[in-house]
Write a structure and sequence with these properties.
Layout: E1 16-18, E2 24-26, H1 30-48, H2 57-76, H3 88-102, E3 112-113, H4 118-144, H5 149-168, E4 176-177
Antiparallel strand pairs: 1-2, 3-4
Helix pairs in contact: 1-2, 1-4, 3-5, 4-5
Amino acid sequence: MVFLNRIYTRFGDGGETIMADGSLVPKTDIRLAAFGSVDELNAVLGICLTTDIPEPYRNWIERVQRDLFELGADLCRPSPAEPSRVGPETVQRLEEWIDEANERLEPLSNFILPGGTPAAAHLHHARTVCRRAELAVWQVIEQESRSQQPAVYLNRLSDLLFVLARVCNDEGRKDVPWIPENA
């Protein structure tokens, strides 16, 4: 349980912050960039939830938000030897959701542009933030020899967000096709 009776600590005023184990690290530490991107993704998903995303997809996104907190907590731990809280079973859950949502869609015949309905546009935005977070997490994995599961999770999550954006675009009927200018 977390107990916060004061939000500011002043520890960060000198360019450092406290990690989960109490150690001080510079704010330029790659783990901070990674879980900052994960935190941004979580906030963008919160914005997505202010739109008309139907059930059960709202519940899925809320579950993903909890997963992202777990993933961020993993990145905050200094020991790369500890197992990831976001494991193969969470990736499997995302794959099942992708398959379930994708059943409602016609196969794509061309690339699509981000947009359409407000819900779809926000989900496309979340997808791009997810991709950036994945890259930041891969940097941590490469530098610290950590579990690849958080990056695999984010990779699959970006796929889910793409499929959900299409579902929220009237099951793909309001997708905005990309038509090359020289076509």
